[in-house]
Design a protein that fits this description.
heterodimer; A: two-stranded antiparallel sheet; 10 helices; B: five-stranded parallel sheet; four-stranded mixed sheet
Amino acid sequence: MAYQQHFRVWRGDAEGGELADFDAEVNEGEVVLDIIHRLQATQAPDLAVRWNCKAGKCGSCSAEVNGRPRLLCMTRMSTLDPDETVVVTPMKTFPVIRDLVCDVSYNYTKAREVPAFVPPKELQPGEYRMQQVDVERSQEFRKCIECFLCQDTCHVIRDHEENKESFSGPRYLMRVAELDMHPLDAAAEQGVDRKAGAQDDHGLGMCNITKCCTEVCPEHIKITDNALIPMKERVADRRFDPFFPIAKLFGRRWAS
Amino acid sequence: MTEIERHGYDVVVIGAGGAGLRAAIEARELGKRTAIISKSLFGKAHTVMAEGGIAASMGNINSRDNWQVHFRDTMRGGKFLNNWRMAELHAREAPQRVWELETYGALFDRTEEGKISQRNFGGHEYPRLAHVGDRTGLELIRTLQQKIVSLQQEDYAQYGDYEANLKVYAECTVTEILRDGGAIAGAFAYWRETGRFVVFETPTVVLATGGIGKSFKVTSNSWEYTGDGHALALRTGASLINMEFVQFHPTGMVWPPSVKGILVTESVRGDGGVLRNSEGKRFMFDYIPEVFTSQYADSEDEADRWYEDADNNRRPPELLPRDEVARAINSEVKADRGSPHGGVFLDVSDRMPAEVITKRLPSMYHQFMELADVDITVGPMEVGPTCHYVMGGVQVDPDTAASSVPGLFAAGEVAGGMHGSNRLGGNSLSDLLVFGRRAGTGVASYVDSLTARPAINGHDVESAAAAAVNPFGDGTESARENPYTVQQDLQQTMNDLVGIIRKADEMELALKKLDELRSRADTVVVEGHRQFNPGWHLALDLRNMLAVSECVTKAALQRTESRGGHTRDDFPAMDPHWRQVVLVCTAGSDGVEVACEQQPAMRDDLLELFERTELEKYYTDVELPEESL
């Protein structure tokens, strides 16, 4: 059931580049990464692509297929029209190194700026007790495979390079939320205010909850609904906000 | 030659998976300036692929569990060929290593009491695997990655430099380890991004490079698993043991072809999944070997009762060690009782409600849905054996992870001995933590013991650089091999001739083919330039893949018995005389040389953990302890 399909793959480096045309064989069950590998083995041995597990678990092969941020290993050819040209380009938000490989160091820089988990002093290893229902909120965020597709699609940095300095992107705002929701994180005792950090150091306020990050997440993490919006609420709870005190007042009235 | 980038460290760890990161954390906490060198981005190592869990006898589900039971299970799983001291340290220290992860921020699934939940797995007597759904490896790698970051934050607070004492060199490949006299002096590497060379001046190298599975066609391993650490150790003068033992995981995906080999976690069986052939029969009951009859149920009724009452029933045979299950599936397929795409059926859909399946096995649900259009909550998966793990590796001192080369250490899959002839599921992640940490302490005390820093010989750097650019050729080549073709032919050769079932004549043919492939690899010429050039990277990895393939084949040809991850069609029985023998591979002038070495005898107090009747199944009469009266 093999058939031929036309591909345009971006080739170039930091200096510039262009879409290169290829015709390649496609077999049943294949994913876009299989085709890229076939091109390497038969037509373009130096075509650069980052990949590791080819099973959707490591988040290395992020790129854009027909303009949509995708994992190449989880994009099945059967979901694309065989008569259409398939355009494969590197992630737009990050600088290109070569071909489909980007410089994703922005993400590692941001990761280092999130204060680490602080273990509770009074508990020794082996003494941690947590209920499943309490760990589940943070566990959802820890499913993240760091493919950086949410970062790639987020228009705050996709269209505005200048925001990268002050905005950490959905991945790292979610990391702050994950730590804030960790049942045993003792950061507050050390004077670390994760809510203030989300707002002041990581630019939570710049997110205007368009949910683009949630849409592209290959792990189906509800980044906006479960991490970013609750984080915004927690921040608002502790700061002056004309809406929340009034809402609270009504809340008490209605409850009584 | 242009000036080469140079860095000085106390400790250089090659590999950023579980073992490498744990070793680096320990070395850094002991005050050593440490570098981690990784072929991939930070956090992408093969450890993320581990699904089921981390084996540690915390006893959170069944309080009868303890390190002695874990030790016994590990020795049985490895058919008593394990280095018993490693198995002992591993079983004793695993719980502490898991609990430590919680202090780094890990979030495991919980029991009702709020403790770490533990699940059943093949070969483990009690529920023992700490887990997070079926993505435990991701949790492990992320936790260690975040611990590294927290150590870097401490350095930033103190020195204003995140990388003052601990730096990750991501997408950087080591091609040669450099020595001063006999001892380690440094490592030679190239940046994948630019192709530029970099030299690390260091008295110590910890190999934590993982396995060799990419030498086989059907494998659950990623491109990184080219046996780099195994080959570097050989070239540096260290020895490899147990290389004939390669684990074929019983359940890999078999369809569609492009995903053939991708792992289907053993948790599916641990949580109640059953294996059936095309006749609908639960065939594993026909494959319980004599050594395991006392622990495994011989009827479906008893097997099913075990899930509810493990103390009064024997375990289902689907949970036999991996080597047994893989061979059984292989036999069913060969007897024409396989599934349409050449596997067998693994079914969990009629054993648990859909919502339990998607909760306990979310990645498997996702993987089959998206890659094979199969909904595992309503029907069976098709599965078959896939090359998964190499038990063989660098011969190390159990307590310190030191190899025979001064300054060279190894931990994790690249180290040999711990798992004997077959590794139990879940024992890999615990191995990474236990021996990663031990390598960290071992390397730190080695550094402390040095009176002078070794020096790198300039000539060695020049020849390493020349070897690295060799695949670009000089334009005068008459034959020009494509690295991808050589790799594919190697994978086919190992799969067909040194795979799950082996024969002398096939392995002799494999050795001939490996010779030819080596000559072809010498004539590989790559196109393009040095900047992120996958063809060039593969050309450099090829010689490592060829070296480890030669070790596997030569050792497998010598061992004339079947045991664990080494099955000989021409010698189908396990032979107690071979139990005491470890095959040791070293680099000789004419390729890999294999020698026999005697296994050290197990300490008496450990031997006493086993019934004499059980030992009789594995030991020769002269080895058995005196019968007490």
